[in-house]
Sequence to fold (353 residues):
Amino acid sequence: LEREARTAYHASGRSARTLLEIDPNPVVQALKVLGSEFLRHPPEGFAPRPLLDPRGALRLFGGAGWRVVQSRIDELREAGRGCELISAREAVDRVGVLDADSFDGAAYLPEGGFIDVDALLDGYLTAAVAAGVEVRTGESVLDIEYDAGRVSAVVTEQGRLQARWIVNAAGAWAGELGRMADATRPELTARRRSITTFPVHEDLAEFGVECWPLVWSDPHSVYFRPGFDGLMVCAMDETPSPPCDAVCDERVLDEAMSRLAVLAPRLCMAALPDGSGDGRSSFRSWTGLRTFAADGVPVVGEDPRRPGFFWLAGQGGCGIETSGLLGRVASDLITEGASNLFDVALLTPRRFG
Fold:
């Protein structure tokens, strides 16, 4: 059931389409590393083209963050696809527009890169329909019914559908659906994430922009990557929001471009040659909502209070990266009651009491 007129209208369709297998949350990092296996090795015939362009990923650090990542290097190398720590100057060798004085060092992941989200989602939907799944769009859930304490049906605008299981994969609306079900409350919060794209200016031709990796800067709270017919910049904003069709706040994007000007002044001068937002007529921008549980870890499992009500929510912006894994974990739990693919005790809604 999809409440909108088409699938992937919200978070999935507004993804930055990146794979970065290094994360301050160790559970999320493990999910990304294991989940990326599906992106690298999908089932035969799943998609007409590769799902991952392994252009590499560069995560920049400064101050305490750099000291922490240096102390975790052995762990990162073991779990994070050949992670390599490099100096700021070495990072500039890879992406020439960076200012080496604005950060202390970087983690380089050569197997990170860019995800073909369109091919991934098409593959999922095509396989689901072939297996007998009916995709119903424009149909909102109005009520959830129980019989003898277990889920028995959902009521939508089009009628009543019997069901022994309801999978709550409603993204920013997952909390509302949980309250409708009178289920456990994992304190889900939707947060805004804004993105802008612009053409590559001829002044940047010497830097080989099309070959750049993903560049994510913790000190500047901004990341950028080639693609989207030019360059994409993410503001890394996390403003809480009610569930909605999110729209851009131009002030957030202006602030992001100001931070980018510190990290990569040459890049911003080319993007905004007059030094102001007036040059943004060629920019295309959008905002999506990422939904987080209180501890930042996805919520996957049957609700302890409401048998048959199954949580698949709170991916916090890593839903695309981890979808191949979390989908299989959810399937295992529903059909077998257990999964050996991941430590499901880390994901269960039971952790919220």
In short: The first strand starts at residue 18 and ends at 19.
